[in-house]
Specification:
With 369 residues, this protein is an all-beta fold. Helix content is 1%, strand content 40%. The chain has a 4-stranded antiparallel beta sheet, with no helix packed on it. The chain has a 4-stranded antiparallel beta sheet with strand order 11-12-13-14, with no helix packed on it. Strand 20 and strand 21 form a beta hairpin. The protein is globular. The protein starts with 16 loop residues before the first strand and ends in a 5-residue tail after the last strand.
Amino acid sequence: MGDFKIQGITPAAEKLKLGSLNVSKIYNGSTQVWPSTPYAPIVGGELTFISNKETAPYYGLFDSNFNELSSDFNFSSLPSSFFKIAAVSDNLNYMIAAMPNDFNNPGYISKNRGVSWTQMSNLNARTGYVHMSKSGRVIIFKNTGSGINYIISNDHGDSFTNLDLSSLIPSGGTAVAVSSISISSDGKVILLNVGINGAYSPKYGVHVFKSTDYGETFVDISSDINPTVGSYQWFTSLVSGDGKYQIHFSRIGPSSWSDDYGETFTNKNYPQTTLGYASINEDGRYFMFYRQDTQEFAYSNDYGVSSTLGTIPNSRPETSGVSNSGEHSFAFSDDLTGIEYSNDYFNSFTSSNFANGASWPLYIVDTVL
């Protein structure tokens, strides 16, 4: 997995030869691994969702009023109506489908905008526990119902391996849950919030594990985020699509905010949260998360500079989303029969009820029709 290296070093472009000929590109399957190319996120023109529906192919693309747009795509059917879309990349290039109620069934992956689906053999997955970078390069999902048994791919699902975090668990501690996962658009930066119990110091903490190499390695950055808080209680973290803005939300004190790729942090008195429902756009200007005091989504439209945040009315803790540009966003409404959405950078919100068979779960997706 990962970028092409020789003895741990990535060669500079135009420095490899095959005989007397220059090597221009190297592929691992269908994935170009050298030279690496920066991911350029797609900016869709309209608010669009990928959502499940009651009839075959059991999912579709919808606009903000839940009018179906799927005629522009050649979607093939999921195995049954019990499977739900669990994760999606920009432009629908990569998608994962899984069962919603247990970890007893293998997931399915599409690498061609839903034209075909392939079973991920022996890799069980569950809706709500699958995460994907906007590029589709990095995929992380929970594999069993207990512990922190997660699977990772950083080659667009061509291969998978166990996500081994055992070396980061403090002596005397036991990792019990992952409360939040946030991935930059290209997949290079990954933030994992891991709950650890046991007789270690600090006790019963939620640590932040960070990768800057597409999940090849992780380090525990908890003590670097803000040691003055005095306890590891970072239940939710966000990394902007470009990786520049990194925010760690606390349940007991100030949040920690960085605008320099996580090099330094500043205290922010954001509302506290214990839930992992949070979303952020490409450049970090627009983000949202669920606040536990008023039980509704809060949002920022100034990169989080101000600690005074707006709120999304009638919203509840469920899937949320912000488009790459930040122009479009949504949260589920209180009764789960529809959504509250914005088409103007969080300036106003409109209620929209499910129609035409669309239903939970749904995900905002930037796509070029």
